[in-house]
Input
Amino acid sequence: MQWEVLQKQLRGIINPMQSADIRRKYIGYFQKQGHTEIPSAPIVPLNDPTTLFTSSGMQPLVPYLLGQKHPAGTRLVDSQKSFRSQDIDEVGDNRHTTFFEMLGNWSLGDYFKKEQLTWIFGFLVTELKLDPKRLYVSVFEGNDSVPKDTESIGIWKTLFEGVGIKAEVGARIFTYPAKKNWWSRSGEPEKMPPGEPGGPDSEVFFDFGAELGLHEKSAYKHDVCHPNCDCGRFMEIANSVFMQYQKMPDGTLKELSQKNVDFGGGLERMCAAVADNPDVFRTDLFAPIMTLLETFSGMEYGKNPKETQAMRVIADHLKAAAFMINEGLFPGNKQQGYVLRRLIRRAVVKMHQLGGNGSKSELGMSVYRQVGVIYNGVYFDAESPEFLDKGQILKEEITRFEKVLNVGLVQLGKHETITGTVAFDLLQSYGFPWELTYELALEKGQEVDREEFQKEFRKHQELSRTAAAGMFKGGLADHSEATTNLHTAHHLLLASLQKLVDPSIKQRGSNITAERLRIDVSFARKFTPEELTNVTEYVNAAIGKNLPVTRVEMPKEHAEKIGAQMEFGTKYPDRVSVYFVGLREGTNPEAVTRDDYFSAEFCGGPHVSFTGALGHFTILKEEASSAGVRRIYAKLT
Output
């Protein structure tokens, strides 16, 4: 079906302003409470060495939670785009997604529990018009290190009494251990690494009705249904974290010098609560995509559990892929690129299971474009040539994998029993995701050596975790002296390519270790040997001049005006950090022009102070990375 025809149908199905209205109301509500709106950080984090993706609103704010002053003040609010790879296996039910928006507000040593709980209760009840009788809350029950949160219990009792509801512990207010009511990026206190901030939290749950209490799926199926039983009746929609502790090297928890509030509420889940429908895939953030999938497959969403699960996986994974691709990621075999490739391939396998006569690559492109429409004006310009061109990356990856999928399915059919060894061979030879090899085998009625399969699968997962460990900001493997030197050389190389080969060259990715640097740049053809020689000499000349490397904070608008290079696809705050190489001494940062420096990039560091410390620069090789992108390897000696 033509895209334009589908668009006309979709306009009459859902209200496209539902999620946008909730997002707007939330930001506006907290602005009235003195909060400053900050932009969403990119999904690929700029300043966090511990993770591949931004998985929560607090992640980009860790330095400020630990005491560093934020330029926007002590009260902040935003909607943060987030991705959690650990939720991939959970996608398929009515509430889990890998990509989501986290509505967040923060107090950096300003207000604390009373104000936060009062405001978030007020937002849910007065702004979103949720019935307070359908709201339940949880607090931390305490442990040997941190006392029971009796203060929050008292605040909640008062708030509920204010709307005519008697709230008692064990009835409307529930206490849970750290596994449920403690928040840090690493989990409960014993899992937190030294230096990690964390604290007890208080969650708000929406009750969708007792008839949804499917206890056979609950970890607490022998107990009375309660908010944290995961049975399907309750959905967490808000979480106020009282970020007041830091893990010390000796394993103890120390109170931070400032008491912080870190709030997170999933926009998708708030939409579900407002619509009084527990399925987030029926909100306007997903419903148009589900309609596309129904049209292409001829199946009705929600009618058959297997097909419904497949539609949810496709919708979620391709949405996440669209955001990653628009931040400059390419499908690959390492780190973020590997996760992107895994998402796309899992979606293609689900397309295969879903059936339908349409092209999988065309379906992928239709979903991609619909994601653009859903977030048009928020994160994307859905009609821009740049957005549409990036969709070709998704289309090409689907086309490539569709071919190997067909071959792999033939190979899969040759085995009566699917062992871990067979699955590994399919992964290595045809790119079959492991967990889907198992599913496809069962679908075909083949026997699966479950014990041996799981053993090999766990071994592969451990290898994947090991390979992903050590990911640092901007592609840096660590902050060692050698890696820092190559980071500065990376800036010199990009500037030299623009000066000598083509001023339109832009960075499309990087990876820097202590041994070498790697840069991906937009360039349509192979670099000539002469070009590479000239660039090498130009970089070494800059090193020989012992140019100063200077960090300057300036308005983003001015940094863009003077030609400072920026990370592809990244949204930056109004005031940014720019590293200059060769900035003229005494130059007023606010009056910098393009003639005043050798190179300038939006960057958080680290770098050397003078280029003379770098040594001799050598280009090792250049090669194709993907369509329209060349990859250069270089080293310092």
